[in-house]
Prior knowledge:
Blueprint (H helix, E strand, L loop, with lengths): L5 E2 L5 H10 L5 H12 L13 H10 E2 L4 E7 L5 E7 L5 E8 L5 E4 L3 E3 L8 H5 L1 E4 L2 H16 L7 E4 L9 H12 L11 E5 L3 H8 L6 E5 L5 H7 L8 H15 L3 E7 L7 H11 L4 E7 L13 H13 L3 E4 L13 H16 L1
Parallel strand pairs: 1-2, 6-9, 9-10, 10-11, 11-12, 12-13, 13-14
Antiparallel strand pairs: 3-4, 4-5, 5-6, 7-8
Helix pairs in contact: 1-2, 5-6, 7-9, 10-11
Amino acid sequence: MTETLINLYDLSDAELSALMAELNQPAFRAKQLAEWLYKHKVATFEAMTNLPKPLRETLAARARIGGFVQVAEQHSAESATTKRLYRLPDAQLIESVLMEYEDGRRTACISTQAGCAMGCVFCATGQMGFARHLSAGEIVEQAIHFARLLEGEGERLSNVVLMGMGEPLHNYENTLRAIRRLNDPNGLNIGQRHITLSTVGLVPEIKRFAEEGLQVGLAISLHAATDAERSALLPINRRYPIREVLEAAHYYVAKTGRRVTFEWALIRGENDTVEQAERLGALLRGLLCHVNLIPLNPTGGYGGAPSDPVRVEAFQAVLARHGISSTVRVRRGIDIQAGCGQLKTEVLRRQRTRRTAS
Length: 358
């Protein structure tokens, strides 16, 4: 059964070497195998033509090359965005998004968990709850699928953001292994500065991540400038309040020299006021940072609405007066439910409807 097979994407270079040694193969076979997995991105053992046929047959009996089954795919009519829903070997569902930009960037937004335990009220993934962590191989496989798709079109995957389903720092070890594999020249060879991790603000893990010696981008979901308001949106704030999150951000900047991005989902009439912008500007003054303003992506489980352009412009102007740079993220893939968890939620809803009807 699939569950008993080794997922080769889960294995490091050293572990691939150990597997070849266990199979009484010469050491160079591990490098050949890694090249097939990450350079050529093949989906079958039969395609590994420079491996002896008996070895290919043994690998097919012992291991698997990932294990995703694509359940749904949607393409945005409004932007160059593709969203995929995958079924994992244990029937869990996860989402991945590919965003293509006019400047040539090809960015995969990938998941680190099936579901999420953080419970952010406006997030479809947070509304569905936590199922399990993804393995390092399952995180990486999402990027491989999009890299394979792009290479078939003569392009390459240039950026990866760990901003899909789940909280990456809650799944710390597997996330870190996945980042190293994404960056590894023998892996997908994506530069560290082209990888970004997004967190709701797990303070101990942010500080730990700062010590890893990486140049990976860090984005922190803030969304409110007072603890009372932030706790209402992000329950994790009751454990790690704003003051501690900002201390961790300062620590990250000091250790890495990298600018921190703060994510701010603009919710009409709630956190898009001039007063909120003034508070935010005062909080961030003096920190090497940038604010990513995101008009809310509506979900069925939350009644908030996105800010209108006039309020967004006023909010951004206040930040500028405080010396805080900001950009307004263009909402991509709204027509295909590209927000985290939305496609999975819709597919599960349709499945329940069909079962009820039958």
